[in-house]
Amino acid sequence: MADEMVLVIEDNELNMKLAKSLLQIGKYRVLDARDAETGIEKAREHQPKLILMDIQLPGMDGLSATRIIKEDPTIKHIPVVALTSYAMQGDDQKAIGAGFDGYLTKPIDTRVFLKTISQFFVKDQSETQTQKRKMRHKARVLIVD
Ligand code: MN
């Protein structure tokens, strides 16, 4: 069921483990990548329905990776949600500039994580667009561990 597949690009093992656990609780299929290059390859190969993207990654960062995704006709339709550290001031604005469709701040809040993810799996397309716009305007979803 590729319909429910989420790709997580994150190099921090604790964050990866938590994101995977939560996504599995939410019955999503999870693909993982520890760096941007691998993540982009997996996105092209598996066509996930959503990508969660860490900003600070070894090698290419999440901002550059998202620009590449959004310029690639084969994967640019996939929403990309940034996983940003709350402490990184200005990451939210950079994230929006890089073409992210939304973002979650770390540490991950287990209570709102799946709720935010589920907004990208709304069946009705117009509703999804509205949610995306809302994400863009609200810009910040605070996540507390
Ligand atoms: Mn990182």
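^ manganese (II) ion complex. Strands lie at 5-9, 29-33, 50-54, 80-85, 102-106. Residues 11-12, 54, 56-57 surround manganese (II) ion (CB under 6 Å).
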